[in-house]
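Weekly modeling sync, notes
Attendees: AB, CL, MP (scribe)

Item 1: holo prediction request
CL wants a bound-state model with calcium ion before deciding which constructs to order. AB pointed out that an apo prediction alone won't tell us much about the pocket. Agreed to run with the ligand included and paste results into these notes for async review.

Input as submitted:
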Amino acid sequence: MVKQKIILDSDPGHDDAFAILLACYSDKLDLAGVSSCSGNQTIEKTSKNALNLVNYFNRSDIKVAKGSPRPIKREPRICAEIHGESGLDGFTFPKYKEEYNEKNATDFLVDIINNNKDIVMVTTGPMTNLGLAILKDRNILKNIKEIVFMGGSTKEGNVTPAAEFNILVDPEAADIVMNSGVPIRMLGLDVTRKVLVTDEVLNRARQIKTKGGELFVKLMEVFNKNQRDYFGLEAGPLHDPATIVAIINPDVFTWQDMNVKVDTSDTDETGRTICASKEPHNVKVAIEVNVEAYWQEIFKHLEKCI
Ligand code: RIB
Ligand code: CA
């Protein structure tokens, strides 16, 4: 079976951590690179977290490319209330060698995409780095088979009534992506808010006696507490691995072709993903999820992380 080559741009981030785990351990994927973006925490912290995670997942061959410290136009914003001061509160990693990619994320993405036809670009944070790479060299678009991103919503947001965090942090970058002409799949709050790390899910994960299971339980206990304290949610939504599940097992989701635009105004509507069924369709949006099948994919890969 030919593995699908992917690159992952991420702001770990408790949920991002398990998108990276699935990307590392799926036998359907060839994870060709990881870049960090500013989002859940500052770029320094998300970069360190990404480095710790790829090493913990036995992929020290991956040299994390550090992303932009700020969005394309707007001021940075972080989400320490959910992800903590480190961005991955709840787990202490072994001391790994702090060796990053010599290229920054923009140059890294331009280089790796120009040198790999039919690559899939996955983003699980604000899309700043991808937006900057497209601005730097629009030719990369011909080599991108598909962009799969976590972000947006067909209805309400999670930071403002209009906007989901990843889009709100950098709506200009998201706008560049939506208008790229590349096939896009969107995993938004419509589905990710249905995959909650409930006590039942946590108890099932506690039966997984691998280092992946241990990491999941320790990080999710903190993630859930913060989600309850800050958002009043029953449990934390495991947003970001939905991007990887969408690639390795797309039938877990129900998809609808839509026309998606991004509100880049400076109003209460900033960052809304305006989703309509009208033509032209530019994005396949996940509108439903088979929750049990989703957790089966998560648990299967936690088992493989030994
Ligand atoms: O709104 C949820 C998204 O914002 C997830 O990607 C989470 O990690 C944060 O980045
Ligand atoms: Ca994220």
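Recorded for review: The mean pLDDT is 97.
Action items: CL to compare against the apo run; MP to circulate these notes.
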